Amino acid sequence: MLFSELGLKAEIQRAVTEEGYDTPTPIQQQAIPAVLAGHDLMATAQTGTGKTAGFTLPILHRLVSNPRERAARRPRVLVLAPTRELAIQVEESVRTYGKHLPIESLAVFGGVGINPQIASLRRGVDILVATPGRLLDHVQQKTVDLGGIDIFVLDEADRMLDMGFIRDIRKIIALLPKARQNLLFSATFSPEIRELAAGLLRQPVSVDVAPRNTAAETVTQKVIETNREQKKDLLKHLFATRGLHQVLVFARTKHGADALARTLDKAGIKAAAIHGDKSQGARTRSLGDFKAGKLTALVATDIAARGIDIDALPWVINYELPNVAEDYVHRIGRTGRAGMAGEAISLVCHDERGNLKDIEKLIKRNIERVVIPGFEPAAVAAPRPPQPPRPPRSGQPGGRAPDRKGAAQPGGPAQHRSGSRHR
Ligand code: AMP
């Protein structure tokens, strides 16, 4: 199947062609006709499947097919995203695919000044991409009118629930007009998501391109068994001996991510950490440097890494396994994207063997074990050194706290507008 067979407006087709895409991905093949036909949608798909274009393209088509009078320029499409990064990326897609259309879009999220967002909303926006906390701030200040929403998209719904956004989501849904089209995207299909979907969607078309908790077939997964105190040296050894570049390294904690980035940097491996305590500017910069190949490694926490959109990431290294097995699937979903081969390497020490078992149970397969000479696991674990007290787990990006605070930062990347103005 080709994009040209989907019946998208010529201006949208042109933008897709300019991006170099001619064949829709499986989710796009299924989602685009369903959304064009006006159906609600329940899509199980991870980042990397092309899901963003899967909803952006038909939404743009529907907007320009049913133009509204210019006088009532309130948002017609609302996309809720769990993190600032994802909100920015979705809005960038809207801009990319809508560049030949007279469509205005805007991303609003916390941690940056609200006033530029208010000014943009006042000028008129067709497609609004938002994180829940900041959107509710706008609602409270009456700087946004959600009464004109025709299409509502909940992106990465599972992560939104994980981050405790359910109340905010329900509040927002209550503000939307009853007659509207709803699209729900989620990487997993838990009972909580099912419940949310049941209340939100009307006779939805279901699209499932990522069978639940199955790791991408194109990703080679390996476990290197070692000792906790040797992990840092092992990681450096891997960089030195395997010519790794563009590696996304996962750490469990923000503090751990920082320390690891410093260690790598000291060893001559250009690295930066990305997590919820970093300023928006620092995170955007690190991600940009990483994408541009200026950084060899980006060390991330689970939540910070969600929604990071990087084409064909070749390597993911789990410096530590996640506590929650499903996060493993999200992590390795960062690599082997859009059919490209990728490798996910997990460094596993004695006290993580239980986590590894949980992961293997979830993905229903055993991961190949590799032992690297000089880093073999000892028969028993060395005693743990005393641990400094852990900071609380709040303060991850997109979470309620950072989404709400950090008000005025004039000049910050508060907004992204798209399209030329036709008023
Ligand atoms: P997403 O799952 O939306 O995060 O998209 C993952 C990546 O796939 C993005 O970088 C897109 O630009 C890219 N992409 C989207 N659609 C296609 C397509 N039809 N063919 C190839 N790549 C695509």
Task: Describe the 3D structure.
By secondary structure, the protein is α/β, with parallel strands linked by helices. It is elongated, with a radius of gyration of 22 Å. It contains 16 helices and 14 strands. Helix 3 crosses helix 4 (84-97) and helix 6 crosses helix 8 (166-174). Helix 12 links the parallel strand 10 and strand 11. The structure holds adenosine monophosphate.
Topology diagram in text:
Elements: H1 10-18, H2 26-36, E1 41-44, H3 51-65, E2 77-80, H4 84-97, E3 105-108, H5 115-123, E4 127-130, H6 132-140, E5 151-154, H7 157-162, H8 166-174, E6 181-186, H9 191-200, E7 205-208, E8 219-225, H10 231-242, E9 247-250, H11 254-266, E10 271-274, H12 280-291, E11 297-300, H13 302-305, E12 315-318, H14 325-332, E13 342-348, H15 353-363, E14 368-370, H16 400-404
Parallel strand pairs: 1-6, 1-7, 2-4, 2-5, 3-4, 5-6, 8-13, 8-14, 9-11, 9-12, 10-11, 12-13
The protein binds adenosine monophosphate.
The site of adenosine monophosphate has 16 residues, from helix 3.
Summed over residues and divided by their number, the pLDDT gives a mean of 85
Bound molecules: adenosine monophosphate
Taken as a percent bin, the fraction of beta residues is: 5-15%
Helix content: 25-40%
Outline of the structure:
It contains 16 helices and 14 strands. By secondary structure, the protein is an alpha/beta fold.
Which features does this protein show?
about 425 residues, 7-stranded parallel β-sheet, disordered C terminus, about 35% helix, about 15% strand, alpha/beta, 16 helices, binds adenosine monophosphate
